[in-house]
UniProtKB/TrEMBL annotation:
The keyword Mitochondrion applies. InterPro entries: NUOK/Mnh_C1-like (IPR039428). Belongs to the complex I subunit 4L family. It catalyses: a ubiquinone + NADH + 5 H(+)(in) = a ubiquinol + NAD(+) + 4 H(+)(out). It is a multi-pass membrane protein. The chain crosses the membrane at residues 6-22, 29-52, 58-82. This is NADH-ubiquinone oxidoreductase chain 4L. Keywords: Membrane, Mitochondrion, NAD, Translocase, Transmembrane, Transmembrane helix. GO terms for cellular component: membrane. GO terms for molecular function: NADH dehydrogenase (ubiquinone) activity. Coiled coil: none annotated. It comes from Papilio slateri. It comes from the Eukaryota.
Length: 96
């Protein structure tokens, strides 16, 4: 029963993260935060799954390493965008 509750919470986290990612696309910071929320829910899902099959947690460290690199890359893009354009609106610059 407790395992089912944890799966339910992780799936709700994943769905809410995707809903925020789809609906709030005006600021880059909100998009990056929703992506990190999705990554965090996937991390929790992997913890539950690896504990269920009694697998060691080595792959979680690799996943955590890549998610930290993804977060640092997103923040560096945010800082460079704010320095060049003055804000983090998607409408303030052209993607072409």
């Amino acid at each position: 029963m407790m395992m089912l509750n944890m799966w339910f919470i992780v799936m709700l986290m994943f769905i809410f993260g995707n809903m925020i990612f789809i609906s709030k696309h005006k600021h880059l910071l909100v998009v990056l935060l929703s992506l990190e929320f999705i990554v965090l829910s996937i991390f929790f899902l992997m913890i539950i799954f690896f504990n269920y099959i009694e697998y060691d947690m080595y792959m979680l460290m690799i996943f955590l390493l890549f998610s930290v690199c993804e977060g640092a890359l997103g923040l560096s893009i945010l800082v460079s965008m704010i320095r060049t354009h003055g804000n983090d609106y998607f409408q303030s610059f052209s993607l072409l």
